[in-house]
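Dear colleague,

Following up on yesterday's call, I've attached the two folding results inline so they're easy to grep. Please treat them as preliminary; we haven't cross-checked anything against experimental data yet. The first protein's sequence and structure tokens come first.
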Amino acid sequence: LSSKFSEKQGIEIKIVKSGSMEPSIKTGGIVVMKPVRVYRVGDVITFGKDTKAQIPTSHRIVSERQDKGATYYTTKGDTNEEADPREVADSEILGKVIFSVPYAGYVLDFARQPAGFILLVVIPASLIVLSEIWSIIEETKKIVAKKRREKISTEKTTNQSRFMQTYNLRPRGIDGVLPPGLEIWDRLG
């Protein structure tokens, strides 16, 4: 197991490096574990130090014993024929395996490599950013086109009003008849 991601609730994710728990936990998968107050026979636990030199182990508890107020567990990998030679003290347990995801560890390991990081993180993130930029550009084009249509419509209405005002320059009385002396307008028109 390797690769630790701590969460606020103590949940950790580890990558499975061996096949000792197959078929229930596949090599190359990940296990999600969480510390609990009580561990029971049948629980799959992860224990041991998590350093560059040492890798924790996930095995099933097959028995437990009490000694001077401390609990010790005997563990065994599901594939292994015999139990682990050394008992595990309660203080060595990192957590109980809640569930596992087959083959996801291969993806996480690949993502740690430069090529994997570029392929799995940088390229998808770039595509999302470009997609958002494209959406902003398209939305801006729509807004600009709408403003142009509104401006053209306003200018058209204004020009029609001016034309109508020019056309209606003939002075008329209340009853629509030209006042005396302006009959000439009717002859010019």
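Below is the second protein, in the same order (sequence, then structure):
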Amino acid sequence: MSTRTTTAVLTCLAVLLAAGLPATVRAERADRDKPVNLEADKVTVDDRTRTHTFEGNVVFTQGTLTIRANRVVVTQDVTGYQKGVATGGEGGLARFRQKREGQDLWMEGEAERIEHDAKTEITRFFSRAHVKSGGDEVRGQFIQYDAISENYTVTNSADAKTVPSGGDQSKRVRAIIQPKGGPAVTTP
């Protein structure tokens, strides 16, 4: 694997999570300047299809960012944009953890599958999705974050559609949002 190709793949892995976070919870900027450490039981490179597959207890570390999964597949289109997909891991979940910029807080997330598209700057978490930052957290079967519009979508179905819960509490989206600064507002 060429150094340029390796650098592109590792950059995509870092982007997999860092670009998918809102500006208020952006990762440590210094992480970008840290060396990348990648461990896997196996790496397969297909230069023809621009696909790199890392398999078996994959651990990606760059500064405070850590991604753990059973498998990570990175593809690059002809214009150089990359897509990354992390799947599996302990309990069947791919996981990430990264320190927030200028704070002693961590952003953490997990799902059976985590996808990031560097071109659209959209990150998607599929099945048993959970993202938390500080005291805030959100759970659902599907979480999408659009870094350009800074919008989240959370649904109770892994295919990104909302289905009626029919009163089944296990099919509900859950969120905990902590107050930000300032005193609590009371209603009369």
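For the second protein, one point worth flagging: Confidence is low (pLDDT under 50) at residues 1-27.

Best wishes,
A.L.
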